[in-house]
Structure formats: structure tokens, C-alpha cells
Write a structure and sequence with these properties.
By secondary structure, this protein is α+β, with helices and mostly antiparallel strands. Helices cover about 45% and strands about 20% of the residues. The chain contains 20 helices and 19 strands. Strands 12, 13, 14, 15, 16, 17, 18 and 19 form an eight-stranded mixed β-sheet that branches. Strands 9-8-7-10-11 form a five-stranded mixed β-sheet. Strands 2-1-3 form a three-stranded antiparallel β-sheet. Helix 14 (about 435-450) runs parallel beside helix 15. It is elongated, with a radius of gyration of 38 Å. The UvrABC repair system catalyzes the recognition and processing of DNA lesions. UvrC both incises the 5' and 3' sides of the lesion. The N-terminal half is responsible for the 3' incision and the C-terminal half is responsible for the 5' incision. Keywords: Cytoplasm, DNA damage, DNA excision, DNA repair, Excision nuclease, SOS response. This is UvrABC system protein C. It is found in: Cytoplasm.
């Protein structure tokens, strides 16, 4: 039975903040929303009855879902706004007004003005933001105004007009808020030094400004001007508590394409982020199937050309994780730190999430592809000559040195094959000896497979370190199977993987799927062995109590337990109660055994 595509998408959404987009059957965007947790928020549309008629109609029309992962809820808010302004989705009625988030503009002028705006123009001015709160903008502008005396007039302060005496100082000069650049009372160099400091504040670098604030505060305090010192102190506290700008947006990063790649043995996943004035306006991940052993460089170069043609991108600069050759028309940047590196990391994060979702979807709708990918990955990770389609794992169990047993579990194509599981009672070893026990069960297992001409596994996993692995190798040598079957040991403490004749263990990434499969095998062998050990101990306990009584056999034990439910009740039963179940002769033997004891 095929699982609907929308249902698969819902199951594989990440538990991370981001923006989601709903599309109808014609691939027309219906709605853009933000979420602190994408999986919970999107799933809520489909798991409850909506009172709002518009929402019910929206849910019926949804045919597919796309999403972009970000780091914080604030980033999601800004990104949602950018996408709504770009696509104008039909069901985002409440957000289709002309509202946009505020920016702080440093105007491109001889004596630049600094002011807030909601519109960004390509006039050479510098824009910082956008900010999610106008209160934040006002606080910053107040701080700047208090520290740096900037002009607020909109005069064209050319050198010729100033020298000609065309302008006169206004009230702001007499109030001490401006230094009178319009009459040449302040030099252009002094003014631009202040602008440079203001830019550092807007970038989040408050160190120099804070030092100046504190120096001013100290000067006011020494001059006994405590009210002025308190005002500066309050501004210092506000500035220190102010959080840096959003990580999503940096106005210096304008008209740039960002590409990252995540790959495995069979596929490459290339994520594309398109930035305009520092804002993400598009995210797309392209899945590329490998035909041969193409490198990430080859895949990325092919994908960049395909994606830029598909989305008609003419950006003159791209950010990538390593150098690619795209000709002389495109500037290629490999960020190492700062905002550019942060955005590249965000792109890689989206590629990783997309890859994980594809794995989950493949597991549901295409288990063969999932198994093939896992097998190819294990072959590469474990340095095997072939794919480990058939894996067997051994584990010993001898709790407190009693009833030693062993277990062999079998995985085929990465999944448990429980019909092939086997238990072993240790026959030739006296006492708790893990090494000798491992040697015995491995020998017995593969001697039988060879004699019965059954297929041998491609990989044997021994639960234990070098000692258990050496013992298993002795059995393979005795059967002339050394080199025909790959064998490794896994130690519990640090999950080291030991290889024959190699003193240095292999450490896999703790999150790797190969290690997870090996751990699953080890845990399953342990569980299976413990289960058999418990059953054997329980049976042994029963034998000690009832079957050791002279004249009492298995059938009598079964009859007694069926009636009395436990050995303890049998021991406490009266003679006539026992006689009703097993007859007088056997009842007397049981009664006398317990009461004489």
C-alpha cells in the first residue's frame, strides 16, 4: 500500500525552528508561516478540527510542503516576512499589507544623516537591519544621538555652498545636538570619524563606544554633574544589554548565491540559498544521484550551473565550502569566519536536514533503496571488500558464572532475521571462561554451516575486545575460513572496533548509521542471550526442587504446577491436597520430602 506523499513529508519534518510553505496540486504557493518547532506546528494543521473556515479550505488544498530551517524564532520571523513579500501567497491575508521591518540608514552624503526607514534603495547608502522591533531602533538612534552630535537637516552640504555661507545654524546647534557642519564649524574628517564609530555600534561592536560612554560618565561624576552621569550610565546599561543583530540578515551580503553540499555513497544533496540585501528569499535543495565515483567538487559544479539556470539567477558572487570553477563572470568566495561563514553553515544545515528526511522517506516508500544505501555506507566505513548483506553477531552470557550460554543473531540487508537466530549451550568449557566459550560457539556455528553447505555471512561481529576476537579467529583458522569472512570485535567501553592483526582500533562517528547498526546487532545478541540464560536458570531451579525427588518425573511436575501454580505452594500443600492431584503414593513422597527437610 502506497503512503501518501504529504503524510511522508509530515512524518519527516525536523524538530527545529524555521519557515514552512504550503503548495497546491499546481505547485502554486498557498501559505507561508513560521514555527518554533516545524514538526509540531505543521502537524497541528492536519491533526485537529479548525473553527476557521479559511483554514479548513487551506488544509484541503495542500498538496506539498517545503520548509527552510533557521537557528532562532526571530530568524524565522524575518525570513517569513521576506518570503511573503516576494510570493504574496493567497492565504497570507493578514500579512499582505505594506508593512515592512525597520532599518537604520546611513545616507550616502558628504555629512551623512542617520535615520530609520522601512524602505531600502540602491543609492549607495548603507542599511543596517532589519530589526524586529521599532523600540530597538529608537533605542539605538537615541544612543547614537546622545553620543555623537549628528545633523538632522536635509541640506545639501557641498563645500561650495558652505563656503558661500548659504546656510545658517539652526536650533539644534544652540541646543548642543549638532556641531554646525552647515557653517563649517565641524570638519568632514571629524564627522566621518563619528560615522565610523556608529557603524561599529550597528554591527554589534560596542567596545569602543562603551569606553567613550564610561569616560564621559567618569568626567561628569568628577565634575559633580551627577544627573548627567546617571543619564550616561543608563545608556551604558541599555547598550550592554542590547542583543546583536539577527544572524539571518546582514545588509552587506547583497545579491549573493550560497551553495553547500552533503553527500553519501549514492547521492549528493546541494542546498541553494538566494540572498537579496542580506535576506534569504529562496531556498532549494537538489538531490543528485551519483553515476560513478564523482567527487563533491564535480557534483557541486554541476548542481550550481543547473540551479542558477533553473532559477534564472544572475548574482555575480557565490559562497561555497570549497573552490569551484565557474568561469570569470562569477566571483567565488570560500568563507572562513564571520557572517558569510554563518550563512554557509546555515545552507549546509538545510542540506543535512533534507538528507535525513529523504532517508526517512526512503525507509517508508522504497526500503530497497534504503537498504542499498546502508550497505554501501557500511562497506565504506568498515573498509570491507564487499557489502555486508549477511551479518552475524555473537555474545556470551554467564551471569554469576552459572549456566553459560551464547547467542548468535543474524541481520540481512540491515534488518533482523529472527528465524535465523540461534542459541548455544556451552558444552566443552567448565566455569565462566568467555574466551573459550566464544571459541566453541563460533566453531560449532560455522562447522555446521559448512557441512550443510549453507551460505556464510559477509561479516562476523564479536561482542568483546581483542581477547574474544582472537578466540573467534582460532575457530575460523581451524575451519580454514580465515580471510573468507570479514570479522571484527566491538568493545563496550568506547565502542572501539578491533580488526584481526591490527593493534589500532577503528572509531566511527557516534552518529553514523554504520555504528548504529553494529550497536543494534550487539544489543540484540545480548538481549537474545540473556533471555535464553534466564529460561535455562528457571528450568534449572524447577529441576532442583521437584524433579530431584525420587519417583517424581516430568509429567508429575507439570500436573503439580498446573494445579498449585508454584513450587512454594506445592511445598506448603497438605497431604490430602497432593493426593487429589497425583495419587497417594507420589503425594506421600512429595509431602515427606518437604516436611522432613
Amino acid at each position: 500500500m502506497d503512503v501518501p506523499a504529504l503524510e511522508i513529508q509530515l512524518k519527516t519534518l525536523p524538530n527545529a525552528p524555521g519557515v514552512y510553505q504550503y503548495f497546491d496540486a499546481n505547485d502554486t504557493i498557498l501559505y507561508v508561516g513560521k514555527a518554533k518547532n516545524l514538526k509540531k506546528r505543521v502537524s497541528s494543521y492536519f491533526t485537529k478540527t479548525h473553527d476557521n473556515g479559511k483554514t479548513r479550505v487551506l488544509v484541503k488544498k495542500i498538496a506539498s510542503i517545503k520548509h527552510i530551517v533557521v537557528e532562532t524564532e526571530t530568524d524565522a520571523l524575518l525570513l517569513e516576512n521576506n518570503l511573503i513579500k516576494k510570493h504574496m501567497p493567497r492565504y497570507n491575508v493578514m500579512l499582505k499589507d505594506d508593512k515592512s521591518y525597520p532599518w537604520i540608514c546611513i545616507k550616502k552624503e558628504r555629512f551623512p544623516r542617520v535615520f530609520s526607514t522601512r524602505r531600502v534603495f540602491k543609492d549607495g547608502s548603507e542599511y543596517f537591519g532589519p530589526y524586529t522591533s521599532m523600540k530597538t531602533v529608537s533605542t539605538l538612534l537615541d544612543l547614537i544621538k546622545g553620543l555623537y552630535h549628528l545633523r538632522t537637516c536635509n541640506y545639501h552640504l557641498s563645500q561650495e555652498k558652505i563656503e558661500a555661507g548659504k546656510y545658517k545654524v539652526c536650533l539644534e546647534y544652540h541646543l548642543g545636538n549638532c556641531k554646525g557642519a552647515c557653517e563649517g564649524l565641524e570638519t568632514e574628517q571629524e564627522y566621518h570619524n563619528n560615522i565610523k564609530a556608529i557603524k561599529e555600534i550597528l554591527k554589534g561592536n560596542f567596545k569602543d563606544s562603551l569606553m567613550q560612554f564610561k569616560m564621559q560618565m567618569k568626567q561628569f561624576a568628577e565634575a559633580m554633574q551627577f544627573e548627567e552621569a546617571q543619564k550616561i550610565k543608563e545608556k551604558v546599561e541599555i547598550l550592554e544589554n542590547y542583543q546583536a543583530k539577527s544572524t539571518i540578515v546582514n545588509p552587506k551580503i547583497s545579491n549573493v548565491d550560497v551553495f553547500s553540499i552533503m553527500s553519501d555513497e549514492s547521492y549528493g544533496y546541494v542546498n541553494f540559498l538566494q540572498l537579496s540585501y542580506g535576506s534569504i528569499i529562496r531556498s532549494h535543495t537538489l538531490e543528485v544521484k551519483k553515476k560513478l565515483d564523482e567527487t563533491d567538487l564535480q557534483l557541486l559544479e554541476l548542481a550550481i550551473i543547473e540551479i542558477r539556470q533553473r532559477f534564472n539567477s544572475n548574482s555575480k558572487e557565490i559562497y561555497v565550502p570549497f573552490k569551484v570553477d565557474l568561469g570569470d563572470d562569477v566571483k567565488v568566495t570560500v568563507p572562513k569566519l564571520g557572517d558569510k561563514k554563518h550563512i554557509l553553515d546555515l545552507s549546509l544545515r538545510n542540506a543535512k536536514y533534507y538528507r535525513m528526511e529523504r532517508f526517512k522517506q526512503d525507509k517508508i516508500v522504497d526500503p530497497d533503496r534504503h537498504a542499498n544505501r546502508i550497505m554501501a555506507q557500511m562497506k565504506a566505513d568498515l573498509r570491507l571488500s564487499g557489502e555486508p548483506r549477511h551479518i552475524e553477531c555473537f555474545d556470551n552470557s554467564n551471569i554469576q558464572g552459572t549456566n553459560p550460554v551464547a547467542a548468535c543473531v543474524v541481520f540481512k540487508n540491515g534488518k533482523p532475521s529472527k528465524k535465523d537466530y540461534r542459541h548455544f549451550n556451552i558444552k566443552t568449557v567448565v566455569g565462566p571462561d568467555d574466551f573459550a566459550s566464544m571459541e566453541e560457539v563460533v566453531y560449532r556455528r560455522y562447522k555446521r554451516l559448512v557441512e550443510e553447505k549453507q551460505p556464510l555471512p559477509q561479516l562476523i561481529i564479536i561482542d568483546g575486545g581483542k581477547g574474544q576476537l582472537s578466540s573467534a579467529l582460532k575457530s575460523l583458522d581451524a575451519l580454514n575460513l580465515r580471510g573468507k569472512i570479514a570479522i571484527i570485535g566491538i568493545a563496550k567501553r568506547l565502542e572501539e572496533l578491533f580488526y584481526p592483526d591490527d593493534p589500532i582500533p577503528l572509531y566511527l562517528d557516534k552518529k553514523s548509521e554504520t555504528l548504529k547498526i553494529i550497536q543494534q546487532l550487539r544489543n540484540e545478541a545480548h538481549r537474545f542471550g540473556i533471555e535464553h540464560h534466564r529460561n535455562k536458570r528457571s528450568k534449572s531451579a524447577l529441576n532442583t526442587e521437584l524433579e530431584t525427588i525420587s519417583g517424581i518425573g516430568d509429567k508429575t511436575v507439570v500436573e503439580l504446577l498446573k494445579h498449585f501454580k508454584s513450587v512454594k505452594r506445592v511445598a506448603n500443600a497438605k497431604l490430602d491436597e497432593l493426593e487429589d492431584v497425583v495419587g497417594l503414593s507420589r503425594a506421600e513422597k512429595i509431602y515427606n520430602y518437604y516436611h522432613n527437610k
